[in-house]
Structure formats: C-alpha cells, structure tokens
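Q: What would this complex look like in 3D?
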Amino acid sequence: MGPLPRTLELFYDVLSPYSWLAFEVLCRYKNIWNVSLQLRPTLIAGIMKDSGNQPPALLPRKALYMKNDVRLLGQHLQVPIHLPKDFFFVIFEKGSLTAMRFLTVVKLEHPELLEKVSRELWMRVWSRDEDITEPQSILAAAEKAGMSTGRARELLERVSTPQVKNQLKETTDAACRYGAFGLPVTVAHLDDETYMLFGSDRMELLAHLLGEKWLGPVPPAATARL
Amino acid sequence: MGPLPRTLELFYDVLSPYSWLAFEVLCRYKNIWNVSLQLRPTLIAGIMKDSGNQPPALLPRKALYMKNDVRLLGQHLQVPIHLPKDFFFVIFEKGSLTAMRFLTVVKLEHPELLEKVSRELWMRVWSRDEDITEPQSILAAAEKAGMSTGRARELLERVSTPQVKNQLKETTDAACRYGAFGLPVTVAHLDDETYMLFGSDRMELLAHLLGEKWLGPVPPAATARL
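A: Here is my prediction, written as structure tokens for the whole assembly.
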C-alpha cells in the first residue's frame, strides 16, 4: 500500500472561466497524481462581496486582456472555451445563483455526477453561449450529464430549501476563511501544511508542492482517455 | 542558417516582484529558445495611473495572498526573493522612479550591463530589503554589476535629463499601447501575430505560442550555467 492520497479542494463557480480551466486540469491529474480531489461548488458573487474585491472585467483594459487570455489558454489547455457574446450581461446581470445551488444539491445527492453536471453547465455558458439561469437550462445540463429528467426536476425543486442555501453559503464562507478574493481557489492539504492557490495558473507550482510531476496542461494519460 | 529569432519584449519595473520572476525565467530561456529578448525598463506607477488599475496589495486579502505566493514562487523558480519588512512603505512611499530612470540610461549607454544592473537592484529591494532610491544604493548596484564607480556616477547624473525622462515615459506609453494594466508584460512578436502576456505565469503558454518546449521554470541548461 502506497502513501495516503493528499486532499485537494477545488472551490469553483461555473460563472468563472478560469475556474473551468483549473477544473479540467485537476480532473485530468486526479488519476495521475496521488491526490483525492474534492469539488466544492461556491458562489463567486459571495466571495467578491466578502473580500471587497471587484471583478477584473470592470477595468476596461483587464476585460480586453481577459478575452484574449481566456481564448489563448483555452487553446493551450484544450478546453473548448468561447466567450459569450454579451459577456457583461452574462456575468453581471444573469449570474449563477440557481446553477450553483443546483450543483450544491447534486453534490449532496449524486456526488458521482457533480463533475459531469458542472462541465455541462460550463459547456452551456462558456462554450455555446447558452443560458444557465432558467430551470430548463439547468435540467438540460443535468440530463446531458446522465441524470434522469425526473430526478433532475426533484433536485431542482430543492434549490431554495434552507439546507441547500446554507450549504452553498457555508462552502463560500469556507473559501473566504482560506483567504479567497476570487475563484478558482485550490486548497492543498499536505502532511504538515495547507496551501491556498488562487487561479488556474498555479498548477505547476501545485505539482512542485505535492512532489508530483508536471506533464503540461494536457498530460498524456488525459489525451489517451479522450 | 535557421529561422530568424522571434522578438520578445519584456516590460518590467524593479519594484514589481512578479517582474523579477518573469525576468529570470526569460533570461534562462533566451539561449534555449530561438528568440531575441529585449529588456524594457518601464515605470509601474505610470502604468497604474494610465490604466486606472490599483496595486493588488491595496486589498488586504490580496496582499496576504501575494506574500505567500511570491515566497512559494521564489522557491519553485529558484529566485532568492524575500519580502521587504515594510512592504507598503517600499512600494507606495519609496517607489522606483530614479532606479527605473537609471536603468533607462544603462540601456541607452551600456545595454550589455542592463540585465546585471536590473538583477542587482532586485537583489537589493526584493531579496536583501535594501534601499534602491538613494544615489549610493543605485551606485552600489551598478558597481556590483561590473560598472566602474566613475561611469556609474556619470550615468546617475543623467537621470534627470529630458532625454532619459522622455525615454522612460515613451517605454511606459508603449506598454500602455499594448494594453498593460500592470507589470510584467511580455510582448511576443511572431511571424504573423503579436501577443501581449501579463504576469510571470504565462511562460508555458508563451512556449506554446512560440512552438518551443517548456522545460519548467529552471530548465536544465540554466542549472548547468549556475
């Protein structure tokens, strides 16, 4: 028996394109590195409010840069990311509250589907420029991830229950306690230390901290599985 | 004869620790990749003003994160970076105007020493917590980089001339025209496209854009030369 796997917590919101990038890279590495990956659906709006941070896209030059950066990283990381046409409307008006509450219920009831449902929501909003706020949008993502329509409807009915609201709030608070001022946040629990890494661009550093090999954003095993 | 090297411009300020990280990685790769590296001393205060951006350290959680991040990246990248004790005083009160004007004269008169003098200034402020604003501090860095005291004094006398002031302003304006909202900025001129990359964490992406190999932040050739 080898050493126990180290735990990685990934705090993410499907409204955040950099969260998608981190998510895909960690999902590729979870079977390569000796780690246990815990996906933690979080509300980015809650993080911004609690930390006093502003979304980077509010500064015009950052918004312009981000559009190019996300496009280039998508190509490099082989994640089919495409910016929604009305970026500001999607991020600042529509938001992700129901979607993230839905993922919270999925985690509680069907943790085995959390990765797939999360990915389908990103595919909608950050690849095909489709809505993720209406009930039928969320149901469509759940079905595409392999959940039955009936079960998806049952879970969707629970998004406004105190249990689910509180769970999402608790996860968001936990990210804040780790020092989050945006998402994604990866928390690595090593034998004697805990590291909080912000963004999708600390994965090579994470490998270094874990004492694991960095094989680039598309490691050979991940390619083989596609 | 192989293909002509592509040009990389690195816009940097010695007040910026992430600039130092990008600088060392690019200095390691300039002899490994088929590139010509142009070092461009820039004033970060001018970039922040022109873009309307705020230094990240003004947000308490970002300041806290940055301290850890810089420490971890320094270890991973093997750059002997240590935060000055009074971080805020160094960045917000003392600044880097004279130092960056001095590097501007060095680039004009002794481009072959620019890399070394820049590194010695970073070693002062971001490794040994020493001043970089007083004349004797700048002279000490220049001498450590191999410049004679007499020559360093001559150059220092020129930091307030219109030629030098204008040159630093022009370089800062050039970075802004590329869309800079902070430093470092790496501009990669490829055959048919120009890419602007912000920060020290786009080096693997840069390798991808150049069609060159990423061998980690400390490539074997760089280790061999140490």
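A: To summarize the key features: Chain B has one domain: 6-210. The interface with chain A takes residues 51-53, 59-62, 64-65, 68-69, 72-73, 76, 179-181, 195-199, 201-202, 204-205, 208-209, 214, 216-217 of chain B (CB under 8 Å).
Q: Very helpful, thank you.
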